């Protein structure tokens, strides 16, 4: 049998549309990537050359690592890194456990008042008690100036809980029924069926929670007095504020140092999460779309 290769002729309008789409996407890519590239180039540039360079920056001006040496010579950076790694690992683990348990409970069809409980939980997405009541709660519970004040208040994200619940609810109920006939309890069903089948969704939640913990600084600023417990983002915020203050002192050498430190600290805070993202981003579409199509 002969295979007929038919070439579909495209109209000039379709070709123009494709060219426009490609040009538009390239432009959007440049707009998104260039700020990162500028910060990286500026962090490796000599401060004296950077201060006198107006406009666009495509490469480092007089390549130097002086800014990074000054940043990493600050012991608070390393303490902040260690604290942030702890908050990311411990916080994400707490988030996953509580979110999975809550989602499993809400995905059960035989739970009395399940819809009412779901509505009450979703209510917290739109209304909260505010900062002062939350601060008083933390203080009266004895969590103030402890690491638990960073980990426990945000143990469950309602948005992520709903995503996980939808993912579990989309799993064929016949799997659960078969497991029950074999004598499985809720813990076995959760660990042997639900968790393995929702790994893509869990990978998305790991990224969401992990990025949230990595970028978090406001809670630490409110609830922590001990500088040795502060996360990296709060330490870097304080360095940037200090650098901005030094920039207005009128001392040219001090201003140059402050300008170089700003860009180096941004790279130090952002690079680890940018390295991690490509390994998890493949789960994004699959994880977020689980349960969106039924039938």
UniProtKB/TrEMBL annotation:
Pfam families: BPD_transp_1. CDD domains: TM_PBP2 (cd06261). InterPro entries: MetI-like, MetI-like_sf. It is a multi-pass membrane protein. One of its GO terms (biological process) is transmembrane transport. The keyword RNA-binding does not apply. PROSITE patterns: ABC_TM1. Its main location: membrane. Keywords: Cell membrane, Membrane, Transmembrane, Transmembrane helix, Transport. GO terms for cellular component: plasma membrane. It is found in: Cell membrane. Residues 81-274 form the ABC transmembrane type-1 domain. The chain crosses the membrane at residues 20-40, 85-105, 117-136, 148-168, 260-280. Belongs to the binding-protein-dependent transport system permease family. This is Carbohydrate ABC transporter permease. It comes from Simiaoa sunii. The lineage of its organism: Bacteria, Bacillati, Bacillota, Clostridia, Lachnospirales.
């Amino acid at each position: 049998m002969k295979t007929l290769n038919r070439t579909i002729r495209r109209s000039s309008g379709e070709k123009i549309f494709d060219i426009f789409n490609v040009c538009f996407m390239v432009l959007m890519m440049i707009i998104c990537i260039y700020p990162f590239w500028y910060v990286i180039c500026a962090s490796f540039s000599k401060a004296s050359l950077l201060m006198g360079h107006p406009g666009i920056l495509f490469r480092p001006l007089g390549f130097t690592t002086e800014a990074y040496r000054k940043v990493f010579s600050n012991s608070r950076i390393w303490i902040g890194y260690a604290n942030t790694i702890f908050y990311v690992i411990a916080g994400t683990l707490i988030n996953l456990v509580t979110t999975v348990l809550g989602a499993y409970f809400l995905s059960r069809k035989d739970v009395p008042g399940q819809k009412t409980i779901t509505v009450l939980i979703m209510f917290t997405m739109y209304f909260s008690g505010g900062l002062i009541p939350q601060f008083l709660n933390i203080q009266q519970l004895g969590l103030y100036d402890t690491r638990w004040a960073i980990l426990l208040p945000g143990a469950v994200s309602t948005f992520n809980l709903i995503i996980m619940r939808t993912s579990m609810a989309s799993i064929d109920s016949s799997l659960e029924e078969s497991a029950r006939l074999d004598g499985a309890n809720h813990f076995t069903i959760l660990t042997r069926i639900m968790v393995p089948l929702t790994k893509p969704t869990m990978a998305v939640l790991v990224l969401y929670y992990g990025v949230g913990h990595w970028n978090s600084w406001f809670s630490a600023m409110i609830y922590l007095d001990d500088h040795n417990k502060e996360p990296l983002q709060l330490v870097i915020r304080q360095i940037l504020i200090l650098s901005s203050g030094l920039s207005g002192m009128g001392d040219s050498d001090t201003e140059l140092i402050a300008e170089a430190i700003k860009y180096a600290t941004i790279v130090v805070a952002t690079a680890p999460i940018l390295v991690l993202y490509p390994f998890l981003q493949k789960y994004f579409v699959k994880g977020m779309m689980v349960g969106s199509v039924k039938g």
